[in-house]
Amino acid sequence: MLSVLKSIVQEVNQIPRLTDALFRLAERVKQTMGVDSCSIYLADYTSRAFVLKATDGLAPDAVEIVKIGFSEGLIGLVGQREEPLNIEDAPNHPRFKHYPEVKEERYHAFLGTPIIHQRKVLGVITMQQSAQRKFSEDEEAFLVTLAAQIALEISHAETRGALNPIAGMYAVNIQKNVRGVPGSPGLAMGVGYSPHAAYTLATWIVKQSDKTQQEIEYYRKGVEITRTQVEVLSQRLEGQVPDDVRAIFQLYHQLLDANSLGREVETKIREGWDAASSLKLVVEAYAARFEAMDDPYMQERAIDIVDLSNRILVNILQVISGKDESVSALPNQASILVAEEVSAPMLAEFPKEHLAGIISIRGSNNSHAAILARAMGVPAVMGCQNVSPTLLEKKEILLDGYAGEVIVSPEKVIKAEFSQLIEEEKLLSERIDKEADKPCESEDGCTISLLVNAGLSAEVETAVQSGKVGIGLYRTEIPFMMRERFPSESEQVELYRNVLLSSPDRDIAMRTLDVGGDKPLPYFPITEENPFLGWRGIRLTLDHPEIFLVQIRAMLRASIGLKNLSIMLPMISSVGEVNEARRLVEQAYFEVDEEARAKGEQLHRPRLGIMLEVPSVLYQLPQLAKKVDFFSVGSNDLTQYLLAVDRNNTRVASLYNSYHPAVLSALYDIARQADQYNVPVSVCGEIAGEPGGAILLMGMGYRKLSMNAFNLRKINWVVRNVKLTEAQSLLSCALTSDSYEEVFNHINLYLESKGLGGLVRAGS
């Protein structure tokens, strides 16, 4: 049964038009299960009805005509109950409703199951039979499994279809709203730009064309270029690799022959598809058949076919444009950066004056892409998983980083309204800037110390360079990640010395190497099934004291003659780890101190602190308080571990939220225990740089908040416009709330009452 399901899903996925795919699905299910009818209805939430989209067994003329209300008939009942419905004699069921157009009078047995994606009912798939009978458990299980597998494809197809309609020969842009996760607050307007979009068959979105002869010429020229490239590669490897490896090129030559792939591709072109799309349709069908074979050799050939065809695709696009299409030219206008996952190097090469916003297909509110965006003050939306970057390329886009919404090809009225909101946001920002130098003190005299999370990008940390603010978190792993080897002790000394000298009179907390999880080192790969629960942070460096000691020595040498160094240990989960780390820090201190004395230099003993981000330490704070000089709460990972949510997984991104009442309770408990044991405590997670978060943390008793430099002025302005007593009252409401949505409601109502609503939503 599993192999049958797999073959059906693979075959349906190769069909570009959703309507064609659904008809084929109905046909295959009817044949496979030996039933009299299979039909698919999709939900139309505008008309609140299920629309018959495909059938094999009901009247074909009823397709797109019959609409069954969400609360009507057996189809509506399946959607309402969100579970399978197996009926022996459907016409006699109390919810049965007769629709003469579908001509189902002869059918009695009925099995329907909902098609659900991310808790949303997308449609209903049914099987019907003339005989009066209950469908078996196996038949029911088959349909439920099939519905689950096709739900994702239907969801993706609906989005792709709206962004790139292929039903007609001449597609026009229509406005489409795409939902994601708010990544960085703010509004942006610009043209979609996807850097280094290496076009592949997998990412290419099929398109139609009526210029048949021209598309055939594009294809033939692309093949000819590829043939030359393959010949060059084959000759280059002659004598260097075994003959059986070079034999792969013989397969390539066969595939490039006009009587092989060429004939089928040109047939697709004559059916109305453009050259690139025709290649995709033919090759993916071939690859699916090879992958389904039991012979490992034949399965490998699927990879060869796709690899060769990707070369042909790029060459076709190069022929069409006259330039290399594998790399997009850098933009010279306001642009929305679109990528599968935004990276630091990607942002580094992007012209800052043209970067209006960011869309990351993968990631959540606290993935590194989102943190980068907030550090730069660039609006961002994460986790738009139904969309390919190529669909947004060169499209006009409006981006709402507050709501996590992307509007593609906006209508004129919407665009005008959005422009007005951007103007209001700009005026509010100017108002905040005018008061940026005022002390961070609440209306009733509570002083908050604002620090910076640094290390992502020197360019965006202007506040650090000015020497006016300390660093609550310096991410030392970034220089490690940007190299092709571990940096030497001397290289680290130079780097850390510059950081310490940037604010010599301010405390600077340097976090020891925190890699693993979602921060791999290219030259020290770690492969784990659950990287966030694996070998990362202090666990890795304690297992490699040679790496840890070199880094600690570098920090200490960099601090000679200064008194502003604090060392912070990440991912602490036990007292034993602190004891071992302290031992190594002491060893390094005595070594460097001896070297400094010999030169007549003075080494000041740094403060040693730990990150509170693993839930186990919440129950060891009394013991840990005796071992360290300070605590720093890493709310990002603490949230992740408390809620058991991978913050980079878009499927569960909506469950990750630092305003969850359980997370707030943990933060409050830490603040109270830190005060009880007289240990200074700060928060360096992203919640500290958010208006609502800063107010709640102030109410809990935190007096040191560390955040991205861009948020300093905003949080300063927030603190000066609230009262500590109000923050404490708001905290009481939050801690007794049932959900983070309820917490947000309390925060938003409070901010609106204080005239601060423009900080968490569009508009002033």
Average of the residue pLDDT scores: 86
Question: How would you characterize the largest beta sheet?
Answer: 8 strands, mixed
Assembly classification: single chain
> Strand sequence of the main sheet, in spatial order?
7-14-13-9-10-11-12-8
In angstroms, what separates the terminal alpha carbons?
A: 58 Å
Q: What does the model show?
A:
- By secondary structure, the protein is of the alpha/beta class.
- The chain has 4 domains: 160 residues, GAF domain (Beta-Lactamase), CATH 3.30.450; 120 residues, Glucose Oxidase, domain 1 (3-Layer(bba) Sandwich), CATH 3.50.30.10; 121 residues, Enzyme I, Chain A, domain 2 (Orthogonal Bundle); 323 residues, Phosphoenolpyruvate-binding domains (TIM Barrel).
- Helix content is 45%, strand content 15%.
- The chain contains 26 helices and 22 strands.
- An 8-stranded mixed β-sheet has the order 7-14-13-9-10-11-12-8, sandwiched between helices.
- Strand 18, helix 19 and strand 19 form a beta-alpha-beta unit.
- Helix 1 runs antiparallel to helix 2 and helix 25 runs antiparallel to helix 26.
- The longest helix is centred in the N-terminal third of the chain and has 27 residues.
- The relative contact order is 0.07.
- About 2% of the residues have low confidence.
